[in-house]
Amino acid sequence: MAALGMGSTAPRVAIVGYGGSGRGIHARLAKEVGLSVTAVVTRDSGRRQQAASDWPGARLHDDLDALVAARAGYDLVIVTSPTGLHADHAAHLARAGIPFVLDKPIGVDAHEARAVVAEAAATSTPFTVFQNRRWDAEQLTLGALLDRGDLGDVHTFERRWERWRPTPQQRWKENDVNGGGLLLDLGPHLIDSATQLFGRVTSVWAQTRKLTTATEDDVFLVLQHEPRAGRARSPHAVTSRLWAGSVVAAPGPRTRVLGSAGAFLVTSYESDASPFETLDVDAPSGTLGWLTRGRDRTAVPQASGGHADFYRALVDWLTADGEIPVDPADAVRTAEVIDAARIAAREGRTVTV
Fold first, then answer.
1. Which of 97, 132, 233, 236 has the most Cβ atoms closer than 10 angstroms to its Cβ?
2. Range of 118's domain?
């Protein structure tokens, strides 16, 4: 049975928060797949004007209570509020029985994450988590390589999300010591990507620093995965080394995956400059990374797909008995890894998950 019992009708969407991700990511992707935004929650006058311009006729609400009271005007809520509010907003919607998408992370720690899942289960409220980076072309391309066995037995996965921002932006992500910081912002993407490819995490070692902000702006994680797990099915217990940094004037290669038959290398990422991107100057059109063996390298074609596919999968799940785009249990396990990383960084030891 479809999660909303709507048949083929596309759900009407309400968005909580119309800031950077609410407008720039969720509303944009919703429009791309043909969804209509019929309600927006924001108090900011500038964002209210943007929402009214983007979605003529959409009702504008000051808070979540007002949105819940106007339940007839939408079918699904997308929560894009600051991370520190995720658990409260999710619980509010679950108690009202309103289906929702919750941006990652689903809470500031594993306790909040489990509470969100329990509240939704107790009220039989459908919800999923916006882990859109599962639909990155880079992630899809690497997954295809692993499925074909092009890298042999993989033993190491490295991914960097590094930026050159010596002057911090003045946002809650930089200043909120409870819900901000790169460990909660980029960590869920990095950990989820590694887990999807290489299986459950069994232990964590971590370093975190606050170089220019009140929260972590420099993060390094070492994850140990269980052997023969994930899409790699490697006999080795794959080690993932994951970086997130804002004060990085020379970002390293975006992705490097090492195996017995070769390596997969992605030199740069989106708009983040890297000195390694010069390797791609002569790459054939449609290339995303290289299959390398020492000095030998072969261009790897980019797999098809993109972030809008999350919302296509969401519509299929809600209306046509499709699979849930992201199982909330995955987000709980990611929160457990983040909690372990905090302990590891604070105590200087490897922590079992």
1. 132
2. 12-132+308-324
Phi and psi for 40 in degrees, rounded to 5? -140, 135
Quick one: 97 and 141 in the same domain? Answer: no
Reduce the DSSP state of residue 277 to 3 states and report it.
helix
Same domain, 114 and 262: no
Pull the structure tokens for residue 138. Answer: 């880079």
Does residue 37 contact residue 27 with C-beta atoms inside 8 Å?
A: yes
d(CA 70, CA 284): 52
User: Do 56 and 150 belong together in one domain?
Assistant: no
Residue of 303, 306, 142 whose CA lies nearest to 238: 142
What is the torsion angle, in degrees rounded to the nearest 10, for the CA atoms of residue 28, residue 34, residue 37 and residue 38? 170
Is 42 a member of any domain? yes
Cβ-based neighbour number of residue 84 at 10 Å: 17
Instruction: Note whether residue 1 is domain-resident.
Output: no
Q: Are residues 103 and 187 in the same domain?
A: no
Edge to edge, the sheet with strand 239-245 lists: 296-301, 287-293, 262-266, 255-259, 154-162, 239-245, 218-225, 201-209, 351-352
Q: Is residue 161 part of a domain?
A: yes
* 208 Cα distance to chain centroid: 20
Q: Does residue 332 form part of some domain?
A: no
Return the H-helix or E-strand segment holding 159: strand 154-162
CA distance 257 to 268: 14
| Cβ 225 vs Cβ 202: under 8 Å | yes
pLDDT in tens, 251-300: 999 999 999 999 999 998 777 777 877 778 888 999 999 999 999 999 99
Residue 22 and residue 95 in one domain: yes
Q: How long, in residues, is the chain?
A: 353
Coil/strand/helix, residue 164: strand
- What total number of domains does the chain contain? 2
Pairing of strands 239-245, 154-162: parallel
Same domain, 284 and 205: yes
